[in-house]
Structure formats: structure tokens, C-alpha cells
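> call design_seq(struct)
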């Protein structure tokens, strides 16, 4: 155990956009995160360390206080719920849309539809609100394969350029939500480390505005 202030980052494309923001906020890893296999990184600020996780694990680390703060996609917060977390800042990075999609030309025959997704909670709420009877199938990846293999009629997935859908003979249908990465903070840490955390939030807010990432 140490008493460093720990920020949990989401690896992958969110990490690529997070590191320049952190740099502008005055926090920089002392070694190259992208080329390292390490999971914990010291920074130029001795009291701050970074950990690099799968996005789905970031809220868990922050909720339990194993990390004080985190960076995670809004899609994951919507799916898991934000209990135990403050969400003080939209970082405006890794913008994308959560959408329904189906094979090009697919039309519902009005009966129940089968929907494959990683986001079963979001999909359940969305189709209920639309009055559509949807049977949900939880998958962990390669969602575009599900309609091709007749596992599902539709998918609910993240769409950025739409290239992945197009490459698999699919088209986006409805937008469920717009998504960007958010800063989350453990509620107890917000009280016990108030000065340090509010300073980082202020520095990141300035970095977001300076970088033109602020939400429109
Ligand atoms: P695209 O082909 O550009 O529409 O990208 C779609 C795929 O990239 C999806 O299957 C997502 O898994 C992934 N993706 C794109 N943008 C993001 C993002 N901001 N956060 C997480 N995953 C993303």
C-alpha cells in the first residue's frame, strides 16, 4: 500500500487521447506507457500514479477506492451505473455513438427481435422504452458477426466512422446515445483528498478547454 493519488486509465484508443490531456494538465508518466507492459506508472508528480486497465474495470477500481479517479467511456458508465462515483468532467475525447444496427436491408416483421450486444442493460432499457420486444444475447466482442451468422437480428454497438459496420454488410439504424470519455472520482476520496483532487479536476478542465475538446 502507498498513499499516492491513483488515476485509473482506460487502455486502447481512449488512452491515446487521454495522455495528451494529462500532459496539458501537468501529469506525465515517467516512462512510455504505450511501449511498456507495466500496469502501474509513476509520474512527474511523485504523489500521483497511473494504472492502465480495461475500460470495464475502471469503474470498479474507482468505486472500491482502489483508484481515486478514473477515465472511462460514458457507454461503460451507462451500462454499469455510476453508483459510488462522481462524474465531474466530460473530457470530450473518444467521441462515438451507441447505436442499433442490422444487416443492410433488414426489416423487422413486427415480432420479437433478437439483439446481440455487450451493453445488455442499455439495450434492455432502450427497447423497453421503444415498446419493442427484444430478446437480448450477451456477447463480448465481434458483434458484427452475430447477424451474419443469424445469431441475432440487430446489434447494439459503438459506432465511430461506421467502417466496421459497412465492412460487414451492416448499417446503423438508431442512435441510442452519444458517448465520450468521462472523469470519474471515488466519493470518499473526493472528501478525504479534496484539495488534490479538485486541483486535478481544475487542471484537466483547463486542458479540455485549451485542447478544444469541450462538449459543444
Ligand atoms: P468504426 O469502424 O470507426 O465505426 O469503429 C467501430 C468499432 O471501434 C466498434 O466496434 C468499437 O468497438 C470501436 N470503437 C470506436 N470508437 C470507440 C470508442 N470511442 N470507445 C470504444 N470503442 C470504440
Amino acid at each position: 500500500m502507498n498513499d499516492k493519488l491513483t488515476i485509473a486509465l482506460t487502455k486502447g484508443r481512449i488512452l491515446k487521447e487521454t495522455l495528451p490531456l494529462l500532459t496539458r494538465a501537468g501529469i506525465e508518466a515517467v516512462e512510455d506507457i504505450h511501449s511498456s507492459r507495466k500496469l502501474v506508472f509513476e509520474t512527474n508528480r511523485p504523489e500521483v500514479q497511473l494504472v492502465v486497465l480495461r475500460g470495464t474495470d475502471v469503474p470498479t477500481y474507482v468505486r472500491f477506492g482502489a483508484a481515486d479517479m478514473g477515465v472511462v467511456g460514458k457507454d461503460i458508465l451507462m451500462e454499469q451505473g455510476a453508483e459510488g462515483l462522481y462524474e465531474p468532467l466530460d473530457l470530450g475525447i473518444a467521441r462515438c455513438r451507441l447505436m442499433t444496427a442490422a444487416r443492410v436491408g433488414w426489416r423487422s416483421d413486427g415480432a420479437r427481435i433478437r439483439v446481440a450486444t455487450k451493453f445488455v442493460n442499455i439495450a434492455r432499457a432502450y427497447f423497453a422504452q421503444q415498446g419493442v420486444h427484444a430478446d437480448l444475447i450477451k456477447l463480448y466482442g465481434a458483434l458484427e458477426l452475430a447477424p451474419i451468422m443469424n445469431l441475432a437480428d440487430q446489434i447494439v454497438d459503438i459506432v465511430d466512422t461506421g467502417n466496421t459496420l459497412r465492412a460487414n454488410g451492416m448499417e446503423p439504424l438508431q442512435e441510442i446515445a452519444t458517448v465520450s470519455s468521462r472523469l470519474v472520482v471515488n466519493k470518499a476520496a473526493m472528501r478525504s483528498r479534496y484539495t488534490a483532487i479538485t486541483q486535478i479536476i481544475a487542471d484537466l478542465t483547463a486542458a479540455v478547454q485549451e485542447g478544444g475538446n469541450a462538449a459543444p
